[in-house]
Amino acid sequence: MRRLIVSEDIVSGDRIHITDKEDILYISTVLRMTEGGGLLVSNGAGLLREAEIEHVSKSGIELRIISEFPQDDEEKTRVTLYQGLPKGPKMEEIIRKATELGVFRVVPVETARSVPGADDINAAKLERWRRVAKEASKQSRRDRVPEVADVTGLEEAAGGLSAEGYDLALALYELEEGRTLKQALRVLNESIDRILAKALQYYEGDSKPLEIAVFIGPEGGFESAEVERLVRAGAVSVTLGDTILRTETAGPAAIAMILYEMDM
């Protein structure tokens, strides 16, 4: 059954009133659905509704809710991407690919080598990034839309690592020579023991998903002092290998590797 992600504020009783132009276009033109068609509608935060289209017009679509139920948690491992602010429109590409690959949350981070400052990221740009995450979720048939957080500084992000309660935090650093991402996920770290134990509990139904954070620098990467700060906060410095990846490639590549290693 076709799926749609909508905000909870357009749900009233047993009706869903769709007025967003893009959603109207998607249902009526892309999917070519008419009255009587069925949809699975997600609120992007854990609730699914089976609904039937009652009315279609250029100004709006009304759905009647047939049933609703909590959706299964799609993440065995939740990856939060802390992405150093890149140049131009690259953040949209990063968010889109990260969403398709299964990222749980994206946190834009201002670093020493970021070109745009946090003050340049206005509400309209943040809203655009969040819309990209929603569109990518719809395209890849994810029921949950990854959160795109407000811009933060590296110091604030590092300072909040402990409070976030991650099982493992990784900082990708091209000058790291002692530990690869694979090694960090598999061995030689006390966090790994906790992760493996937690994974076993998860598959037995006794635990929440694993929480992993990955830090990616902007063009030019992190400065050494920034990596040192992250390590002091509990992160593990790792490399993806001999090849240097672009910032818009590194995050999605790391997410794919992490989820492959932990979930497949």
Give a brief rundown of this model.
The protein has nine helices and 13 strands. It has helices spanning 21-30, 90-101, 123-139, 154-159, 161-164, 181-186, 190-203, 224-232, 247-263; strands at 3-5, 11-12, 15-18, 38-42, 47-56, 61-70, 77-84, 105-110, 147-148, 152-153, 168-172, 210-216, 236-238.
Characterization of this structure:
With 264 residues, this protein is an alpha/beta fold. It has 2 domains: 3-70, Hypothetical PUA domain-like, domain 1 (Ribosomal Protein L25, Chain P), CATH 2.40.240; 77-263, Alpha/beta knot. 36% of the residues lie in helices and 25% in strands. Strands 7, 8, 9, 10, 11, 12 and 13 form a 7-stranded parallel β-sheet that branches. A 6-stranded mixed β-sheet has the order 1-4-5-6-3-2. Strand 7, helix 2 (90-101) and strand 8 form a beta-alpha-beta unit.
The stretches of 5 or more residues where confidence is low (pLDDT under 50) are: none
Overall CATH class of the largest domain = Alpha Beta
Oligomer: single chain
Going by CATH, the architecture of the largest domain would be 3-Layer(aba) Sandwich
Task: Classify the beta-strand content into a percent band.
Answer: 25-35%
Tally of structural domains: 2
Helix content: 25-40%
Q: What value does the Rg take, in angstroms?
A: 20 Å
Order of helices and strands: EEEHEEEEHEHEEHHEHHEHEH
Distance between the termini: 26 Å
In the CATH scheme, what's the topology name of the largest domain?
Alpha/beta knot
List keywords for this structure.
single chain, 264 residues, alpha/beta, Ribosomal Protein L25, Chain P, Alpha/beta knot, seven-stranded parallel sheet, six-stranded mixed sheet, elongated
